[in-house]
């Protein structure tokens, strides 16, 4: 482009000088300079086309590089998302396993609590029965007894516990506690 301006400037100056010299010489020079102008115009057109082609080529190359970088960014983003999905799935599986273990502990503990509640109920029932017996014995001994011998020192029976306990026929007196794991399993069908 600079060459075109320099050439144009020289051509303009040359034309001004020719007009000053006279008309006879200007005809010959103008034909020569017109031919030179046509040649230089063709060269400048070629140079301009070459510059335009070079710019297009550079722009295409730049666009290709930009597209390649964009594809690489997208691929990296996809890889990052895939890794994140894998990590979250692993974490989710660990949480599910933890929930399963906790649920199993809960069911086991609830079964044990059920057994303990049943044993507590049975022990409270026995304690109430024994307290009733003790109250009965204390009230009977302060009232003078049942007409039986209350002296416990005699060997061979006849004491209060032998007479009263056998006459009341307390069948639960020496029974074991009956609650078991199977009872808890029946209560919580899990």
Automatic annotation (TrEMBL):
Q: Where is the BZIP domain?
A: 53-95
Q: Where is this region: Disordered?
A: 20-79
Keyword annotations of the record: DNA-binding, Nucleus, Signal, Transcription, Transcription regulation
Major location category of this protein = nucleus
Tell me which Gene3D superfamilies the record gives: 1.20.5.170
**Record carries keyword RNA-binding:** no
Which PROSITE patterns does the protein's record reference?
Answer: BZIP, BZIP_BASIC
Name of protein: Ocs element-binding factor 1
Q: Which organism is it from?
A: Noccaea caerulescens (Alpine penny-cress)
């Amino acid at each position: 482009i600079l060459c075109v301006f320099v050439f144009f400037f020289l051509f303009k100056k040359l034309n001004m000088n020719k007009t000053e010299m006279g008309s006879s010489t200007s005809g010959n020079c103008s034909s020569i300079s017109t031919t030179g102008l046509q040649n230089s115009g063709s060269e400048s057109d070629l140079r301009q086309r070459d510059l335009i082609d070079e710019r297009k080529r550079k722009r295409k190359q730049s666009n290709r590089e930009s597209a390649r970088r964009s594809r690489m960014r997208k691929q990296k983003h996809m890889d990052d998302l895939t890794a994140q999905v894998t990590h979250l799935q692993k974490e989710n599986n660990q949480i599910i396993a933890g929930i399963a273990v906790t649920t199993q502990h809960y069911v086991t503990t609830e079964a044990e609590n059920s057994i303990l509640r049943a044993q507590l109920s049975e022990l409270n029932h026995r304690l109430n029965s024994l307290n009733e017996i003790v109250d009965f014995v204390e009230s009977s001994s302060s009232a003078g007894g049942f007409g039986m011998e209350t002296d416990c020192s005699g060997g061979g029976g006849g004491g209060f516990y032998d007479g009263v306990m056998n006459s009341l026929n307390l069948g639960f007196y020496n029974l074991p506690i009956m609650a078991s794991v199977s009872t808890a399993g029946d209560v919580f069908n899990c």
